[in-house]
Amino acid sequence: MKSITIKGSERESVGKVSTKALRNAGMVPCVLYGGQNPVHFSAEEKSFSKLVYTPEAHTVEIDLGGKKFNGILQDIQFHPVSDKIMHIDFYELDAAKEVTMEVPVKFVGNSKGVMAGGDLQVNQRKLKVRALPANLPDFVEADITPLDMGNKLYVTSLPVNNFKILHPDNTVVCKVKISRAAMKAAQEAAKAEKAAKGKKK
């Protein structure tokens, strides 16, 4: 999995006053959990853009001026009006411990049903997976080639390699719906066939 480096500074004071001052200065207060003790730090808001405003999944290298930690984004809080990042929680990675995170679904192939006029309806754009940090996938691949009109693709059909998908077996990733145009064409074809049979009689 790709990694993004976030450069920040450890926080000595974590009270409301210092937190407000940080935000006013364009900084985001953060906490890294998972180690022996939580690590409080801050970083510039713009340094999180490639991590937060992207459909891709990344691990994070947190560089606090000499101290480096590997983690993943655990939780993020946005301001309800301005949508600015208010706070971020990270979870420290341990090479020997499995971790859970969401990764995007990458759709590949050309569906028979879509080529015949159906509509692809995506139910899951991201999936929760669990794996050792070294085995975390950048994405889960979903091949839609075999899907005909009316068919569904379940999580059980997705390839897994050294990771687990944490969704029930009956979770639908996508399906091919019969489009209105295809339905109309089928109805008209059926009418025409019925009319042709009537003439033969």
From TrEMBL:
Large ribosomal subunit protein bL25 beta domain sequence ranges: 98-179
GO cellular component, one term: cytosolic large ribosomal subunit
GO biological process, one term: translation
Full protein name: Large ribosomal subunit protein bL25
Pfam families (UniProt xref): Ribosomal_L25p (PF01386), Ribosomal_TL5_C (PF14693)
InterPro entries: Rbsml_bL25/Gln-tRNA_synth_N, Ribosomal_bL25/Gln-tRNA_synth, Ribosomal_bL25_b-dom, Ribosomal_bL25_C, Ribosomal_bL25_long, Ribosomal_L25_dom, Ribosomal_uL5_bac-type
One GO molecular-function entry: 5S rRNA binding
Function: This is one of the proteins that binds to the 5S RNA in the ribosome where it forms part of the central protuberance.
Subunit text: Part of the 50S ribosomal subunit; part of the 5S rRNA/L5/L18/L25 subcomplex. Contacts the 5S rRNA. Binds to the 5S rRNA independently of L5 and L18.
Residue ranges constituting the Large ribosomal subunit protein bL25 L25 domain according to the UniProt record: 6-90
Transmembrane segment boundaries: none
Lyase recorded as keyword: no
Keywords: Ribonucleoprotein, Ribosomal protein, RNA-binding, rRNA-binding
UniProt record similarity statement: Belongs to the bacterial ribosomal protein bL25 family. CTC subfamily.
